[in-house]
Amino acid sequence: MGLVPPGDRYRRVSPSPPVTLWDLERGDSLGEREARLIQLIYQYSYLQMLDFLTTVAFLLNGVEEGNPLVRWAIAAAPSPLLGLLFVKLLAIGLGIYCWQTGKLRLLSKINIGFAALIAWNLLSLILKSSMQA
Known about the structure:
Blueprint: H1 21-26, H2 32-60, H3 68-76, H4 80-100, H5 104-132
Helix pairs in contact: 2-4, 2-5, 3-4
């Protein structure tokens, strides 16, 4: 205890502010964790866009939505596209929450799940189109 200066023992260390895309564009040096979080949010956004597009392709090809919550949003909205857009905006909001709170592991697992979901969506679309031929 003698090596710790008296004023430093109770000094509060404020957490560093969250890294934003603006910081990255300015060229600020980032730690490995922050760089990984930014990469994950880009991946997450891209996967959400692909899920949106494959779901639109589902609807255009007569394939029914498998997720009951998304199916409800599509049915409850004035148009299916608006219902789907609402769900995707909520998903983007959750992704941003994970990013801002530094939930690296959770965002990684969600990305893996959405990548598998998109592969499943594409497989379903291929099977549906092969049955119509």
